[in-house]
Amino acid sequence: MISHQAKSALDFIITGALKSALVSSPEDRCEVTVIEDTKEITEKKVVLLTVSSYVFRVMTMLYFTLNKDTKAHFAAINRSDAQGMSESDFLDVICECGNIFCGALNRELANHFPHLGMSTPNVLDRDCMDYLTELDAGYTQHFKISINDNLTMHASLCVCDFADIDFTVDMTQTEESNGELELF
Asked: Contact, 142 vs 156, CB < 8 A?
């Protein structure tokens, strides 16, 4: 069972991680809200990452469609030209943003749970996410991400619990930078 305070803590961590991982500059506005209706999630692909321990598996999903606006935004994050960005370059950048997002979750959970492991990003078709219910997760939450009022994306959190999960985080903490994206 996942306690109510653990669910609130996970939502808080995910919201902060999304806000810091998906902006291209400190001036960007990023709003993250919980959504109930998954029909809002219309992106075609998803970056899937997991954080696992002996007592849980947390899956984070960042949905995207490779289009002009999304490509321009992730080119700005990478500080590169959207025109010169290949599909492979785009996937590298969005996967690295997924790593930053999931890494923030991993760091926070490491304060409460020993022996965590984090996966490498996997890019899947969005249709795969229709089977999340088959995992019999103890907690699933979906988020809408609005960046500068011109780009909307979605993310999901799915927690499979193998034991009781209960922890809290300081929800008065301010957002901190998780570092800049740097590809080699």
From this structure: yes
